[in-house]
């Protein structure tokens, strides 16, 4: 009986917090869109002013409010309630505003991340490139995920106070990694995957990785030829 009462209380608290989050989201929806567009513009300007070369895409989205609630339920709710910790859903959705930067080449990813580190406060960094490469039987798309916070002090934006303290996530990928991510989402781990299928997926992942490396080496060789011809 005691356990059932606790579960009822938790369910009631979660329902209340979902209502609070929906109100918060609806009240700030316009600000989220403005912040997303401002962050895209700022990152675009910072990259254009750098010497890292062309990127193919800078885009963003505001996460759907029901998707935010599902993510909180999936990743955080049980742990917080087990520890009897009070919570607000909005404090656990770091990717409510998401920006994606797609580079032509993999070696541009670190250069883009350094630019962002100089102009935004770093909350967390998830290096999916290293995570995948260090695990023999792992597969999945590569890329660098950065949870950032807008800071007035280092802001590249004019009229920036409206976005002060706003968290957002930036995913930085190469063109090949971005293509693989589309496939990765189609084969996402909803069920256990048989070993023979895992091997086929790993072969395909290796081919994408090889393509990324070859594109980079072809670029370098081409640049060396152009320099030699110019001498």
Overview of the molecule:
This protein is of the alpha+beta class. It is built from six helices and five strands; from the N terminus they run αβαβαβαββαα. Helix 5 runs antiparallel to helix 6 (195-230). The longest helix has 47 residues, at 2-48. The model has no long low-confidence stretch (mean pLDDT 83).
Structural descriptors:
231 residues; alpha+beta; five-stranded mixed β-sheet; flat
Strand content: 15-25%
Could you give a short account of the major beta sheet?
Answer: 5 strands, mixed
Total DSSP E strands: 5
Label the overall shape: flat
Arithmetic mean pLDDT: 83
Taking all Cα atoms into account, the compactness measure Rg is 21 Å
List the total number of helices.
Answer: 6
Overall SS class: alpha+beta
Q: Element order, helices and strands? A: HEHEHEHEEHH
Separation, N- and C-terminal Cα atoms: 85 Å
Low-confidence stretches: none
For the largest beta sheet, what order do the strands appear in spatially? 1-2-5-4-3
Blueprint of the fold:
Elements: H1 2-48, E1 55-62, H2 65-82, E2 97-103, H3 109-119, E3 121-127, H4 128-133, E4 144-149, E5 167-174, H5 175-186, H6 195-230
Parallel strand pairs: 2-5
Antiparallel strand pairs: 1-2, 3-4, 4-5
């Amino acid at each position: 009986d005691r356990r059932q009462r606790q579960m009822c209380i938790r369910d009631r608290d979660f329902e209340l917090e979902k209502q609070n989050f929906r109100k918060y989201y609806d009240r700030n929806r316009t600000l989220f869109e403005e912040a997303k567009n401002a962050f895209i513009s700022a990152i675009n300007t910072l990259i254009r002013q750098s010497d890292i070369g062309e990127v193919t895409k800078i885009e963003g989205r505001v996460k759907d409010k029901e998707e935010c609630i599902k993510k909180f339920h999936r990743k955080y709710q049980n742990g917080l309630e087990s520890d009897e910790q009070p919570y607000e859903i909005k404090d656990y959705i770091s990717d409510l505003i998401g920006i994606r930067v797609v580079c032509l080449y993999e070696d541009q990813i670190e250069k883009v991340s350094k630019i962002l580190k100089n102009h935004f406060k770093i909350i967390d960094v998830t290096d999916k490139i290293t995570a995948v490469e260090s695990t023999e039987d792992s597969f999945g798309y590569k890329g660098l995920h950065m949870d950032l916070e807008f800071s007035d002090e280092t802001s590249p934006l004019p009229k920036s106070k409206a976005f002060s303290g706003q968290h957002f996530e930036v995913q930085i990928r190469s063109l090949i990694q971005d293509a693989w991510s589309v496939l990765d989402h189609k084969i996402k781990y909803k069920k256990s995957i048989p070993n023979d299928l895992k091997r086929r997926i790993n072969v395909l992942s290796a081919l994408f990785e090889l393509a990324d490396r070859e594109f980079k080496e072809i670029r370098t060789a081409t640049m060396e030829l152009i320099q030699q011809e110019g001498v």
